[in-house]
Write a structure and sequence with these properties.
The complex is a heterodimer. By secondary structure, chain A is mostly helical. Helix content of chain A is 75%, strand content 0%. Chain A is elongated, with a radius of gyration of 17 Å. The termini of chain A are far apart. Chain B has two domains: 79 residues, Up-down Bundle (Four Helix Bundle (Hemerythrin (Met), subunit A)), CATH 1.20.120; 41 residues. In chain B, 73% of the residues lie in helices and 0% in strands. Chain B is built from six helices and no strands. In chain B, helix 1 packs antiparallel against helix 2 and helix 2 packs antiparallel against helix 3. The chains are: A mainly alpha, B mainly alpha. Chains A and B meet through helix 1, helix 2 and helix 3 of A and helix 1, helix 2, helix 3, helix 4 and helix 5 of B.
């Protein structure tokens, strides 16, 4: 198991998240895709930390912990926005939310 | 770090992620999302970052997955006509994946094995959080408070004037 295999797995996870964020028309799926991409970035942080010459410094772990906290805040605000949009427009399909389209 | 465990965890994580991205029913996708985070936490355990794996399980499976399930239940009324799927996203995702894999395989300095290192203890992480990373920690605390208040303000009912 080398670093490149881990990075390929994390790249696959990122691409699947991108697929969910770009292809699905439901707002919750877009949030799920964004969370997947953030998790792939976390795997990269931990992998580079573990494969670094000196893993005694907990730098990568710290970045991953802060990224998890920020991703949780983003998920909470995003899901609150989904609920607010649903209350206002009675839909969560992002194709129908085109009021600002020129 | 055994190769067999790595392969099993990778297959579990990637298939759960693919299921979460493509399943038509929202609730099934949310449950696959939780399974995917179990797999990612297993990666963290395998890489020797046990604390991050535990935090991931607590935050994502304990909080974010439950929050997603609540949101699905609160907005479920037009679930059936949500089956739209754009195939251009598949093309973009495959192109990004191909580019990343090409870059990773071309970089020769990435094919290294991990150095043997002592396990990172929770005491070390706590020391680092309280000494070198205390300002980022406080900023994250302010950010979480602001996000909590913002989420509450977003979902509160409008009072009729």
């Amino acid at each position: 198991m080398t670093l490149s295999i881990l990075l390929i797995v994390s790249a696959a996870l990122f691409s699947i998240g991108l697929l969910a964020a770009l292809s699905r028309r439901h707002a919750i799926f877009i949030l799920i895709g964004i969370e997947m991409m953030l998790a792939a970035a976390n795997i990269n942080f931990i992998a580079f930390w573990r494969f670094a010459p000196q893993p005694a410094q907990p730098t990568g772990v710290m970045v991953a912990i802060f990224a998890i906290a920020i991703a949780a805040a983003e998920a909470a605000v995003g899901l609150a926005m989904v609920i607010a949009v649903y209350r206002h427009f009675r839909t969560t399909n992002v194709d129908q939310l085109n009021q600002l389209k020129g | 770090m055994s190769t067999v465990a790595f392969a099993i965890i990778a297959i579990l994580t990637l298939s759960a992620a693919l299921a979460a991205a493509t399943l038509p029913k929202l609730m099934h996708a949310a449950l696959s999302f939780a399974v995917m985070f179990v797999g990612i936490s297993a990666f963290f355990f395998l890489l020797g970052a046990e604390f991050v794996g535990l935090v991931q399980i607590f935050v994502y499976i304990g909080a974010v997955a439950v929050l997603i399930v609540f949101t699905i239940l609160l907005t479920r009324h037009d679930q059936e006509k949500m089956r739209g799927f754009k195939w251009s996203g598949v093309v973009v995702a495959i192109a990004v994946f191909a580019g990343l894999v090409w870059t990773i395989t071309k970089t020769t300095s990435l094919s290294i094995v991990p150095p043997t290192a002592k396990a990172l203890t929770v005491k070390q992480i706590g020391d680092a959080l309280m000494i070198s990373y205390v300002w980022p920690l406080l900023c994250v605390a302010v950010l979480l408070t602001a996000a909590l208040i913002g989420a509450l303000i977003l979902v509160v009912e409008d009072k009729p004037q």
